[in-house]
What does this fold into?
Amino acid sequence: MNIIKNRYLYFLISLLVIIPGIIFMIINWVNFRTPLPLGVDFTGGSLLEVRFAGTRPDSGEVQDAFLKFAPNTDPIIQPLGDDSYAIRSKTIDDATKGEIVIEFERISGSTVNTLAFASVSASVGAEVTRAAGVAILMAAVAILLYIWYAFRGVDHAFRYGTAAIMAMLHDVFVVLGVEAILAYFLGWEADALFLTALLTVIGFSVHDTIVVFDRIRENTSVYRRVAYEPLVNHSIVQTLDRSINTQLTVLFTLFALALFGGESIRHFVIILLVGIFSGTYSSIFNASPILVVWENQEWRNWFQRRATA
Amino acid sequence: MTRRNTNWLIIIIFLLALALWVDLINEINITNPFNHQTLIFRNVKTRLGLDLRGGLQTLLEADLPENASISPEELAVTRQILESRANALGVSEVVMQTAGERRIVAEFPGVSNPEEVVASLQQTGLLEFVDMGTTPVDPGTIIKTDFAESDSTIPASTPEATATADPNQPGPTAEPTQPAETVYHTVMTGTGLKEAHVSSDRTGQPAVSFTLSSEGAQIFADYTTTHTNQYLGIVLDKSVISAPIVRNPITDGQGVIEGRFTAQEANHLAIQLRYGSLPVPVKIVESRTVGATLGEESVRKSLLAGMIGLGVVILFMLLYYRLPGFIADLALITYAILSLALFKFVPVVLTLPGIAGFILSIGMAVDANILIFERLKEELRAGRHLRQAIDLGWSRAWPSIRDSNSSTLITCLILYVFGNTFGASMVKGFSITLALGVLVSLFTAIIVTRTFLHTVLDNLKLPDHPHWFGL
It folds into this structure.
């Protein structure tokens, strides 16, 4: 099996996934002024989820009732299942929420159950967004430093760290792209849990890449006479069974969560599924091939090829 | 085979028994059999987060300008007072923690009246006795006083201001819409109070009786002696509660606040007066409520998902890796039992993402075993003896396991710090369960699996069946 030989095909496959994601981020930017529609955790605002025990009033009535107690809050009302609504609006306080729920009970003539209510002030939202950026950056830097340290005995230790970070960025872009596409079609919003999923994917992606790199590290000292390219390929093939099996066990548990774990974490689990699948793909088909591209300094050929074509 | 293996086996069985015991009980309570004194007591009930059992979570922030410095002590005292207030309201298992330099996270599991709790938290609880001269102000009116004036209705925390202020300007009634018109003089604040409790007035209406400290009683006596037949405003957080007229000097330091209260309102007021005003005024910047219904559904569904996930992984390992797979499955069950016991003992509050993190770590726990078994197979294919292959498999897989898990732990640490700063207990819960899961899985995958495998090989003598190893 020669994975390294077809490296440009695998890079192309990655691009075919990432580019549509970027296109949808641009579409979202045009529509909502943000590449990913963000939830109240980041933007500030309120999200109220209510379940009607009796017949559910139509969204117009719900909107009127909402505006009666919380004027000028721009509520957006989305049906949730067939007996509930999710209402997003500017920040309202608990007292107002209480009045609104009582009003809902009055217009529907039955009990209204508050499933969930979140209210985040705009300043906290902005701060969380900043901190989220810092958290992702810190994770990347910390992991780069760790790999650099772990591979300090190997030639070009810095390359390993950089290649792992590039594979990680690949996974980040796949996840962001898929989120952008799902946000467009299903109206998903990125919340704190999305960020958690993203950071977990980062951790897992590097986890997976390191296993392959580790084999390369070991093989460089075992087969001193073998050229770099077949050596890397051999290392990938050797760890392939492990990569796929680990991937499978994690996917089994995540599939179980996605199918049976309930509505509230489905978004979270699906993002993890996508990211972890991407993490395995990138550690096999991107990270190590990048090492080979670097070793051969192939960017010179890219230039030549384009020049001769 | 070796003594080392036997030792490990004993340790593992002991740990397993201990963990099973913790899993099945709700509290550890060991008493000294000789004098019946409690030696060890620890509540090890499974703690469910708000998203699983329903409840209210709020993030409170100091309501002071961005550059105002707040000492950790002030914030800690604020937290203490808020916690006392919430407990006095009858909310059980309140958890309050300071988060960062100017925030407090408050969690109220299972509350059914989040609005009321939130309202009681937000009040600063600043009681003032205000000189109203000859014109009373209607209850409910928002007024300005000369005590620690600020641009909002929330006073700053400078109790010295009382002593230095001049007695001046008894003025006409201020309109609620134009509170800036008159600044009333504060005679005394709630710090002069010693005690407050609910009582009833002559008509049987609920009221709040208070006793003043000796210092407070002195100020009160002096004031009422010189201001008979004038109105004394009782003001809470700048809102007038009542404005009784002073008929006779009050020298015994006893008083009653009447204000057409309901029993509940009187109780709230008494609570606020009893625990004093907050050194740092707070506002609510984030509030989350999860209904109990949603929580119950989530617990049921995630448990089901966990069982199914675990089942599929166990089956997969058994089919693919045969005998070692079976051993790994035993190690996996050990892992589940140990982690659960650890979660209960630490204790870790289980949230929905926390459970997801745990279930995810099941997959990762198997990863270490897969790494080892793939290595084991390679060594066997290379023609090594089984026992040698096992030892080589473990020692060669170790660097990969170490490095890959380190990167996951680094991410967990960053998630934890992030979650902690913002009181995002969901993010925090996820990082804690994932990190503990990774640590326990290292133990089970490396030590437990190897010990079990050696034990089986020693007692069953089957090194002649390569297909039992999936070869």
Notes: Chain A has two domains: 7-36+124-308, 45-120. DSSP finds ten helices and four strands in chain A. The radius of gyration of chain A is 24 Å.
